[in-house]
Amino acid sequence: MxxxxxxxxxxxxxxxxxxGIISSNGQNAELVIxxxxxxxxxxxxxxxxxxxxDRTLELIKEYRPDCLAIEAPFYSKNVQSMLKLGRAQGVAxxxxxxxxxxxxxxxxxxxxxxxxxxxxxxxEQVADMLTHILKTRELPKQLxxxxxxxxxxxxxxxLKMGITSSSVGSKNSWASFVKNNPNKIIx
Length: 187
Description:
Layout: E1 5-11, E2 16-24, E3 29-38, H1 45-63, E4 67-71, H2 79-98, E5 103-106, H3 108-116, H4 123-133, H5 143-161, H6 174-180
Helix pairs in contact: 1-2, 3-5, 4-5
């Protein structure tokens, strides 16, 4: 039996960031927690980023995951929206990197493909399929939460298939950057 791993998945957003944590034994995945970080009380974009960073750190400290799977920002014609999403993703990644967690990025279509078999599936179809995969009756109605959970389950499936090239070992990975630039990481 493979070593049990705890995987945190994040769906970054500047209004709502979804997260899900699963336990994977290499063959099966079990739901640990799923939820959302709501930021409507913050008017300032930087306060929202701090909230994402702080809550991600809290989750990491409490659940001690072995890695972070995160949804990569999708291409958008609105450059400002794309930059804000990239920043949200970046602060979640920074929280993981401060705990030396490997980071794995997955495109939204790749996550949908892994969960439903269809890269163009709706968020509702992904949420519905997750209830079957994780053998749970109900998940939160907040689709950002199930999207974060989907990133974690996607990574579980990649591990199950022996595919982990999204981060570790690739010369363009975050883990590689940290390893090759130890003086650029603030402790």
